[in-house]
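Deliverable D4.2, example record:
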Amino acid sequence: MNVSNLQVWHRVYKEQLQCR
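Output generated by the structure prediction step:
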């Protein structure tokens, strides 16, 4: 697992939550 990948996933997740 890559730490960078996790950070990107977290950012997308947060952005999607705000978009909702």
